[in-house]
Description:
Layout: E1 23-25, H1 26-36, E2 41-44, H2 51-59, E3 63-66, H3 70-84, E4 88-92, H4 96-111, E5 115-121, H5 124-128, H6 139-143, E6 149-152, H7 159-171, E7 177-183, H8 184-188, E8 190-192, H9 193-199, H10 214-225, E9 230-234, H11 236-240, H12 244-254, E10 258-260, H13 280-286, E11 289-293, E12 317-322, E13 336-339, H14 342-351, H15 362-384, H16 392-404, E14 410-414, H17 417-425, E15 434-436, H18 446-457, E16 461-466, H19 467-471, H20 477-482, E17 487-493, H21 523-528, E18 532-536, H22 539-552, E19 556-561
Parallel strand pairs: 2-3, 2-4, 4-5, 5-7, 6-7, 9-10, 9-11, 11-12, 12-13, 14-15, 14-16, 16-17, 17-19, 18-19
Antiparallel strand pairs: 1-8
Amino acid sequence: MSTVLESKPVAQAATQSANEPELTDGFHLVIDALKLNGLDTIYGLVGIPITDLARLAQAEGMRFIGFRHEQHAGNAAAIAGYMTQKPGICLTVSAPGFLNGLTALANATTNCFPMILISGSSEREIVDLQQGDYEEMDQLAIARPHCKAAFRVLHAEDIGVGFARAIRAAVSGRPGGVYLDLPAKLLAQTMDAAKGKASLIKVVDPAPRQLPAPDTVAKALDVLKNAKRPLILLGKGAAYAQADEDIRALVEKTGIPYLPMSMAKGLLPDTHAQSASAARSYVLAEADVVMLVGARLNWLLSHGKGKTWGQEKGAKKFIQIDISPTEIDSNVPIEAPLIGDIASCVGELLKGVDASFPKPPADWLANIASRKDKNLTSMAAKLAQNPSPMNFHSALGAIKEVLKDHPDINLVNEGANTLDFARSIIDQYQPRKRFDSGTWGIMGIGMGYSIGAAVTSGKPVVAIEGDSAFGFSGMELETICRYDLPVTTIIFNNNGVYRGTDVNPTGGKDVAPTVFVKDARYDKMIEAFGGVGYHVTTPEELTAALKESIAAGKPALINAVIDEAAGTESGRLTNLNPQSGKTK
Length: 584
């Protein structure tokens, strides 16, 4: 345990007489609590009152990754949590900094990513009397509705308990975001070093296994055995579980076709014979039994209802594996709810899948194969076209071929059309290698996820960004260059949101709401920070630039010019975007 350090730009050890006990302070107790629990990286942005906390953390051997905006630091922490099953740590200043981080915290909770947002805050006695402190805000009250749990620590001797509760809350049950409020006065509090060390808690088994009920396992197996058109649907929760071998065994031993949600791609290679991705619409509409593994029947799956699910053809039977009992029956009745962690549930199901387990009917598999072949042939023809300027298909076709030779690369993807097309074109071969807009479908995760993935994995990252989506976090290019991260950002530049062809109907000077600066040179941005920029207009140029940037392992940005008329309004979410009748 270190002796207490003064809160100065360069901390110095306090002088103590031989008879005085060794002291520690809140700064060091926070750092020691993190290190004790194997949390060695902090993503954040310094300022009052946490600047010295970042300095001291670095001095104590932790890694501090400093950002230009707290939201992106929070996104980096969240994706680190998803990749490691440990809570990612985000550190922000008070009030506005806290609010910036709160967006990432809420997004992490919605996506079930474990993270802890730690924010400095004003003193309670001033906040509670609303006396007008510097950046005064009741941050704990604001955070509570938007995260899984929220705690405030007021006394140095409680720092260990505060972190233990935050860690356990973040990773146990359904993972999510946790807020930890640290008032400025807490960090400077001192106490006996020995007592401080004794007050810290190493969290034991923070996410205990939860076995499903045996009778429900038996029922689920019975429903699968009697299915005529079964389907396994894998969500990002299945990828988070890191039960990769058992999930693959369940799919292959049952012979049931599977459909991965976007962040579950790669749990089995997208080229696997049982993958039904190329026949997605058909299998969702026609399946009579669907087993959900770490997936929720939310808007991304049309709530399990309607035309998408062939509701007019009769009700389906659903089996659902989920850690949270309250998720069951949230949209449709669940025939067999398996409540437990995914690894345990899949393991129990595997015990009942032996050589006698019936394979899916041949006609079901043949119909899926026929539609896959037809759709893959159609897609191949689109990818082979070489229009000028490029469109989404020709550009993504070039990227697809390069990434096929680099299956361990982390892929970050966001945008409207850029996300929609890439999700169906770019194949994944390994789990937890694709990170995108997720459950909320939000834009702005690109650079934060890229940095978090690069720092956590030590592997290269390719971020495929719409030009609009990139704008939310583009300044973090400087962060990527500052830490010399192997991130290649590809911007699909079509001069606007969705496309760049809209016009101002009044003929006025202002451009249309969806239009950006024409022919912007995003590649020049990264050059300003010391990275490498590429400006490409053909698939051949894109291929060469991507190969070169991956080989170099340095920060790079490829400005990929595509047809400004390419793209559709709201991508594939037109039904969620009310359209004007254009009447007065």
